[in-house]
């Protein structure tokens, strides 16, 4: 037998393509911190009472935890599958403004924000191939 | 210091005298246990009285595992269930059981061993039939590495981590049922089956890489962790199969495991490609391959490039570029061999398990190759 299979670190793990086949929401946990006394938490308290139950019921794949944080501004923290967290301070925001922030955290991938310069980012080789000087008829000089 | 676990005393382990030279306990039928466990999650306590007393103690996961009522109120567990879009017929206690590895709880009625054994055979079946139908000419060694790329502990472990499964710091009865419970202990293949290695265990280990060597086997903590996370993924497929059926398990394997990307062309390693190519042409009745220099530059310079194509009659089999004529010829031969071995009927290839579906179109046998070139 002259053909062998190579066992390398790269060949042992296949690449994950989230959304091809199965989609896993990257936000796995959300923490809501509020204060009962401070005025900056007024919107947060309204959000927790009025909007959060519906939001939690609509997003069962996220674990929600609510805890008081006395004498501090209200904070929403998203925990992501890649191990990162995203805290957002929501002081003096109205419940619906907080909902926007929460939806932003839910839809985030957890990665650092980066500027995308290329139109397509792919794990596969280009279909067209790269230019080769050895093929084709060449340019007349 | 090792913690005392009074809950384990109920299982009758400490009440029995156990001689040091006692013979191995008889092998218990794991499928029977699995079935009973599935029943337990759905039946009322009155119905479970028919089960022998020594079984019921292991069924409710009391020995170190989360109880059924605790797993139903765990937010982590229900979030994991929803995140994976698991079928509603899969109850939370079974998902909790899939998260308990044998290293955390040796009681096979409470850990995920039996589910994982079931799951491995289902995963291996679907991945193997897919590989065989999609790349019918893959050489055996490459086939095994491709299989390992899809279902090996590294892949499955990483997949389970990307599902959002987290491991507890230490296993125990007080741990949240939504956390993976494992302990960094040496994995001894075949330990659980009286020294016999199951086929499923063999597929996860590589004898030549020293995985089966009990004394020098996997020793790094990352490897143990990979095995623990992989056992969760395997047990989950087993659980889906036992609660929701064959089609649900197949769909889960397709969407989570087969959707991953593996570069098949990188797995090849040729010893003597030129000889193999000429033997292949002889076997298939093609004309003998001839290497032709197609283009070159800088022959007398420090960085020459030669482009060599290999032809069989008028057909071009492949080409390769290299800094010497020999190297370019070898590369061209390797490209030609890869073009042969990586033949695929297409992405929409049908597999035998498609025929289980109701109203499936008539089966047409896939391409079956006579195998790799033997030199």
From TrEMBL, chain A:
Q: State the SMART domains in the record.
A: L51_S25_CI-B8
Q: Which residues form the Ribosomal protein/NADH dehydrogenase domain?
A: 36-109
Give the residue range of the signal peptide: none
Q: What is its main location?
A: mitochondrion
The name on file for this protein is Large ribosomal subunit protein mL43
What are the top taxonomic ranks of the organism? Eukaryota, Fungi, Dikarya, Ascomycota, Pezizomycotina
Q: Which GO terms describe its biological process?
A: mitochondrial translation
Q: Which InterPro entries match?
A: Ribosomal_mL43, Ribosomal_mL43/mS25/NADH_DH, Thioredoxin-like_sf
Domain of life of the native organism: Eukaryota
Q: Where in the cell is it found?
A: Mitochondrion
The molecular function terms of the Gene Ontology recorded here are:
structural constituent of ribosome
The text of the family note is: Belongs to the mitochondrion-specific ribosomal protein mL43 family.
Q: Name one GO cellular component term.
A: mitochondrial large ribosomal subunit
Q: Which residues form a coiled coil?
A: none
Which organism does this sequence originate in?
Emericellopsis atlantica
| Keywords assigned by UniProt, alphabetized | Mitochondrion, Ribonucleoprotein, Ribosomal protein
UniProtKB/TrEMBL annotation, chain B:
Please state the protein's primary subcellular location. Answer: mitochondrion
Keywords associated with the record: Mitochondrion, Ribonucleoprotein, Ribosomal protein, RNA-binding
Region (Disordered) spans which residues? 45-74
Record-level Gene Ontology MF annotations: double-stranded RNA binding; ribonuclease III activity; structural constituent of ribosome
Family matches, as InterPro entries:
dsRBD_dom, Ribosomal_mL44_DSRM_fung, Ribosomal_mL44_DSRM_metazoa, RNase_III_dom, RNase_III_sf
Q: Indicate where this protein resides in the cell.
A: Mitochondrion
Domain RNase III: residue ranges: 77-245
Tell me the GO BP annotations in alphabetical order.
RNA processing
Q: Which residues form the DRBM domain?
A: 272-342
Q: Which residues form the signal peptide?
A: none
UniProt-listed PROSITE patterns: DS_RBD, RNASE_3_2
Looking up Gene3D superfamilies in the UniProt record yields: 3.30.160.20, Ribonuclease III domain
GO annotation, cellular component aspect: mitochondrion
One matching Pfam family, short form? DSRM_MRPL44
> What family name appears in the similarity comment?
Belongs to the ribonuclease III family. Mitochondrion-specific ribosomal protein mL44 subfamily.
PANTHER family according to UniProt: LARGE RIBOSOMAL SUBUNIT PROTEIN ML44, RIBONUCLEASE III
Which named protein is this? Large ribosomal subunit protein mL44
